[in-house]
Amino acid sequence: MEAGYDYLYFLRQSHRRVLRFWGVFLISLGVLLLAGGSAYYGYAARVRADLAQLNASRLASTLHPAWQTEPEEQVTGRGGVLAAEIETTPAGFPANAAPGQGSYSSEGLPPAAWSNPQAYESAEYLQQAMVKAFTPLAGRPAAAVGTLAAATQLSIPALDVNSPVQELRILDLVDSRAYETPRHTVGHIPQSADSGEAGSAWFFGHLESPLAGEGSVFYSLPRIPEMLRQGKEVYIVTGNGPQQFLYRVTSTQVVPQDQLKLYDTGKATIHLVTCVPSLVYDHRLVVHGELVGVRQ
């Protein structure tokens, strides 16, 4: 009898320990989920409050387009030296400066260039050189919609973005239809105008995709509003093989995801779209640009 009683007592104690363990585990898990949910809610509220900073317009500029080299006037720089008189090397050093003198033309030097800083060319310098290779439209009309080939490449030199372009298909879902999402590329809405045409060309790309793993081709797009506020020029280049088209970014805006509507301006414009804010993705950042140059 005692052996049987001890056995039953042992089973009851084991059962209680198991229940206690699972009780503590479930309570701890609930606390963690509640804390994580609260932290995410607080983060989402904070980043949504910052979305207004992504609305920006290009500042009016008196400078000539980048492909024109003659300055409108001489500008006196530091120490009374005329800015137009300072010659620089591709790396941004004054041509007559000794090693260790002068400063870089970019805001910072990336780690990849530390081993050979004088060979480094900033994104701003590369963009300026690239723009000069294009012929300005100078009031000439763009090609009619439906007459040019679809873009196969898109780049934003100031952001070091360079991606192939794919035409997005419409997917038939159970009770609706939707465009497919681009994977590691920029996607073009085929019902919109093609690059270089006198219509609105719409392109979509992921800001990031931590779960789907579809790339982050437009991860740096949220940097554009601040660049515009600083008076910097930002250009978008699209190419279809024999031709390349140069767009100058004019403005950016943020809209809730359910309020995004594709439209046509009737002019040669480009519109880049990505999801914001990071890890929430319930708004869309739209970057608008106008066609300013072409390269054959």
* Lateral strand order in the biggest sheet: 3-4-7-8-11-12-10-9
Count of DSSP H/I helices? 3
Kindly report how far apart the N and C termini lie: 100 Å
Q: Cα-atom Rg, whole angstroms?
A: 28 Å
> At the first level of CATH, what is the class of the largest domain?
Mainly Beta
How would you spell out the order of helices and strands? HEHEEEEEEEHEEEE
Could you give the count of β-strands? 12
Largest sheet: 8 strands, mixed, barrel
Low-confidence stretches: 69-106
CATH architecture of the largest domain: Beta Barrel
Write down the domain tally: 2
Principal-axes shape call? elongated
Helix content: 10-25%
Class from helix and strand fractions? alpha+beta
CATH topology of the largest domain: Sortase, Chain: A
CATH superfamily of the largest domain: Sortase
Query: Would you tell me the overall average pLDDT?
Result: 80
Beta-strand percentage range: 15-25%
